[in-house]
Every structure is written in structure tokens, then in C-alpha cells.
Amino acid sequence: MGWRFRKSVRIAKGVRLNLSKRGVGVSVGGKGFRVGIGPRGAYTSTSIPGTGLYAINYFGKQKNRELPKVMQKASDQSESEGFNFEIPPELASNSTSSALGCLWFLISVIFFFIWWPLGVVGIISQIVWAAKSLNSPTGKAKNYFQQGKIALQKGEWQQALDAFLKVLEVKPEVNSLYREIALLYRRLDNPEEAIKYFEKYLAHYPDDAVTKLNYAVTLGTVGQYQKAIEVLQGLPTEMKQELVVINALASAFLGLNKPELALEILEKGPVRSRKTMNEQMKLFRYLLGLTYKQLGETEKALKQFYKIYAEDTDYEDVRDLLKELSPSFGG
């Protein structure tokens, strides 16, 4: 059995110096509730006096969350294009530093009632520290990020983009924000700039398969089909089975005028297994119809276009395609 050591020394009313084998800490409070900081970080301690029962909660300690699989993220186009509203890790405050600031403020308040001059000095120093933090590059970057986040929530894409670009002006090392900027440029119909920022982001986060998918789709919008295919073919195996990736690959092969390869990809899709006609399924049938049309298989092409028309009469140019391929079509 290993020996343990713990001793608590009262240094003022409500303030204790805690000594243990792990190191030195300090805590403030009274019976039932205390706030402190020790070798393991800042914490709160709640107890039921006279029972010996207590609980300790450390700041910044969270249960591990199981990350969703990449294929689940990419299974729906709108989800794969989603913005991240969490503050970039490069701007996230150190939890211990923040907890120390809160603890220092509490100690200052306590000392204000014990010996008010020392309490006043503590509170003033806390205000000065907070002001300096707000005016630091990190503080300014956080403020710009919050402005961008609010604009995103309102759907104000240009304002959000401007705010995020200001973040990079004051904190160029916030690499994780490149992804949001790329997505915003794409929303603003500027795929060339979107591609630049996707590439900057992927240079730092090369394993982000969902962003690679968005990057490849954007490459396809500017006619860089071969590069898009290379990116899509490099995605994880399980992700390449998803309809959004199948559609992107088939579209790129059609862009290169290779309908045989497009058909080989599309034949892996859920022709019979999926009954619901969502946006990705409409796109799948549309691409399949175009592929059959280019291969001269008119009846098969008509079958796909009719399925789409039955669900959405205004989808793309399906109406015109049906008139072209079927003279008897009266839509």
C-alpha cells in the first residue's frame, strides 16, 4: 500500500492552503461548498456537512464523446456542408487560466470583507487583466469570430466572411477557420477562392475526409474534373459507398465525356433499395438518365427522367429532356 499525505492549513477566514503528495493548492469557501485550484487544476467541491459525503468537479473535464463516423457526416449533402459554430481551438481559452481568473476574483471578494484594501487591489487587478485580454490579438480575434458566428446564424454570408477574414488578420495561425471561409466563398458563388481555402485547410488537416468531399465537389464546379476524381478516389472505402460520393464521381466522369465510367460508378448506387426520392436520389437518377442518354439507351434514360418528373416537375431540365427523347410527352 502506498503512503498518502494531505494537510489543510487555514490561512484566513474561508481560505485554506492544501498540501498533498501531488503538490500545493488553495481553496476558498465555507461548509458545503468550496472553490479551489490544485495540481489537477481548478475545481468546485460540494459536501453535506457531518456526513463525510462530498463531490469534486474539475473545470474543463468532459466525458469523451464518440465522434460520428465520416460516412454518417457525408451521407447527406446539406450536412456535409454544415458550418462549425464552435470557437476554433487556436482561440479557445486555456481552461486552467480562466479558472484561475475566477478563483482570483472570488479570493479578492473574500478578502474585501476580511481586509478591504487587499480585496480592492485584487478586484482592480482582475479588471485590468480582463481589459488586457480583450485588447490582445487573441481577444480581438475572438470578438471577430463571435461577430462571424452571429452573421452565420442569420444567414448573412458576406458579413460572416468579412468577420472571419479579420480573425486571420489579427491571428494568422487560426488554420481551422480556413474551412469555414472556403464554405462561405462557395455559398457566395466564388468557387475559385473556395478552392484556395480548402487547400490551405487540408494542408493542415489532411485526414478530414468530409472537407475533401466538399473540396472535390467544388473542383467539379470549375471544370477540374480529373483533380476532383483523384480526390474522391482517395476517400475512405466506406465513404465512397455513400450516394453523395457516387454522384460526385459520376458527374466528374460525365464532365470528362466518359459515360462508360460514369455508368460503372452509378451501378453501385441504390437503384432499387431506396424508395425515398430525396435530393441526392434525384441527382443520382438524373445523372443515370444523362449517362444512358449519352450511351444511346433512350428507353433506360426515359425511365429515370420520368421517375424524377413524377416527384418534381421542375427539376433541372428534366422536362426538356423528356420532350427531346419522347415526342409523345405532353408535359
Automatic annotation (TrEMBL):
The chain crosses the membrane at residues 103-129. TPR repeats lie at residues 141-174, 175-208. It holds the Pfam family DUF4236. InterPro entries: DUF4236, TPR-like_helical_dom_sf, TPR_rpt, Ycf3/AcsC/BcsC/TPR_MFPF. It comes from the Bacteria. Gene3D superfamilies: Tetratricopeptide repeat domain. The keyword Cytoplasm does not apply. Keywords: Membrane, Repeat, TPR repeat, Transmembrane, Transmembrane helix. Residues 3-54 form the DUF4236 domain. PANTHER family: CELLULOSE SYNTHASE OPERON PROTEIN C, PTHR44943:SF10. This is Tetratricopeptide repeat protein. It comes from Neomoorella humiferrea.
